[in-house]
Amino acid sequence: MTKALIVIDVQNDFCPGGALAVPGGDEIVPMINGMMTGFDAVILTQDWHPKGHSSFASSHSGKSPFETAKMTYGAQVLWPDHCVQNTSGAAFHPDLRTDADLIIRKGYRTDIDSYSAFFENDQTTPTGLHGYLKERGFNNLTMVGLATDFCVAFSALDAVRLGYKVEVALAACRAIDMEGSLAVALEKMKNAEVTLGQAGVSKY
Ligand code: VGL
Ligand code: ZN
């Protein structure tokens, strides 16, 4: 088998009570833990920003969270400060199994955000995940986690572009859904032939 499970950003700040809480973000943890045994490898991603990161509204005078700013690489949504390196908000949800093959951190360059597990938001700076997966021979990826309409969708779309067969197990994802972002993300994933399904979920 060559199937890897990619668990996107199941971190305290994206769960209820966190700085950028995704509604129901914590509900998916038991399901994801259960899915892990059905894959040849489990990879966790961790949003990992330095203080004063350029994706934080607090780094742009006069801007509020959820407004956009123009970056060198295009428009960027501004977020509340979240997932700051070495804080409890950046830690994985305490119940998430972390006995994974690889933990890949992203968003640690001050000037570029990184939604995707593969490329930063400039669409060219790689995280190294593609090299890891290629070298280990994985071509089949299932993605779960937070948030469906940002990091999960960007990761899935990049993975398709890179030639992987990709399924997003929607039951084990939750969305931010700002200004219709979930509908847009689902449409883009459908058009890109991402399977929007339940891979590995039904058993749990
Ligand atoms: C995410 C916004 C900012 C995500 C990360 O994990 O979807 N969203 N940073
Ligand atoms: Zn972030």
Question: How would the blueprint of this fold be written?
Answer:
Layout (H helix, E strand, L loop, with lengths): L2 E6 L20 H7 L5 E7 L20 E4 L2 E4 L24 E5 L22 H8 L3 E7 L1 H14 L3 E10 L6 H11 L3 E3 L7
Helix pairs in contact: 3-4
Short description:
The chain has 204 residues and is α/β, with parallel strands linked by helices.
Explain what the structure shows.
The structure is a single chain. By secondary structure, this protein is an alpha/beta fold. It has helices at residues 29-35, 129-136, 148-161, 181-191; strands spanning 3-8, 41-47, 68-71, 74-77, 102-106, 140-146, 165-174, 195-197. It has a 6-stranded parallel β-sheet with strand order 5-2-1-6-7-8. β7 (165-174), α4 and β8 (195-197) form a beta-alpha-beta unit. α3 (148-161) runs parallel beside α4 (181-191). Bound molecules: pyrazine-2-carboxylic acid (VGL) and zinc ion. Pyrazine-2-carboxylic acid binds at residues 9, 14, 47, 79, 115, 146-147, 150-151.
State the helical fraction.
Answer: 10-25%
Order of adjacent strands in the largest pleated sheet: 5-2-1-6-7-8
Instruction: Write down the Rg.
Output: 16 Å
Low-confidence stretches: none
How many DSSP H or I helices? 4
Work out the number of β strands. 8
- Name the overall outline: globular
Primary descriptors:
single chain, 204 residues, alpha/beta, six-stranded parallel beta sheet, two-stranded antiparallel sheet, 8 strands, globular, binds pyrazine-2-carboxylic acid, binds zinc ion
